Protein: Enoyl-CoA hydratase/carnithine racemase
Organism: Giesbergeria anulus
Amino acid sequence: MNPMSTSNTDILVHTEAGISTITFNRVGKKNSITSSMYATLADLFEAAATDAAVRVVVLQGDVAVFSAGNDIADFLQNPPETLDAPVFRLMRAVAAFPKPLLAAVCGPAVGIGTTLLFHCDLVYAGDNAAFSMPFVNLGLCPEAASSLLVPQMLGYHRAAEALLLGEPFFAEAALEVGLVNRILPPTECNAVAQAQARKLAAKPLAALIETKRLLKLGQAPAVLERIEQEGARFIRMLAEPAAREAFSAFVEKRRPDFQQL
Ligand code: COA
């Protein structure tokens, strides 16, 4: 089987002229990500890292929603139990991805929909983009090394606001702190990411890889270590009462009650 293909219809992949475009395709559930989608994504990133046909990867969602983050119902039924679970495999594969990685983000980018962006090299946002990391509101802790990377990029106090309150911030704020490169009309976002990807795909790959490696040299081991440290806590917290209450409330479409927790 072509390493850059998938039978999972919730994730689309198209590789052409050195550019592999991975698309979240579960719009009915706001592109929330199930365990099987994490496994597919992890396989794709692991394959793309060494596939000579892939020089650049673009990650994109829908014009109205990038991703609502973890599928909460799936989390209730299939919580990750070890650091080998697909969600953590994806985080490591993206954090260590050696080639240029671009994202086109329109609409909500919740949880891992935002934390993945800290591992992308170029991010293009629709003017409707809304970024949020509501882990505390779900009784959880940060993931994907966001407890390290968010304060590095936003500064401590804005990071604390984003991670403790878990409220959304929007495209202009993301541009100001450097999380996104450009704000665009949502209908142009994917096309601009593709145009930038074409420029990168035409450049010498070894020079791109070496430059990215050097750009990340200072933080690379710490990022992988933080993914593991957060992951161990995240797995434990998933089974605790606050997360169970938050997830049940979401599925039952009611407000969570944390009064006793
Ligand atoms: N997990 C599972 N299902 C989800 C989901 C998620 N993270 N996010 C949305 N959905 C589902 C909803 O349950 C709903 O399903 P239904 O039509 O079968 O009832 C459908 O997607 C549409 O969602 P809805 O909330 O009605 O859309 P919206 O446009 O009003 O709001 C969001 C969009 C993304 C702001 C909102 O869905 C949301 O906040 N989702 C949860 C985000 C979250 O906490 N993610 C976890 C991060 S760790």
The longest strand covers residues 11-16.
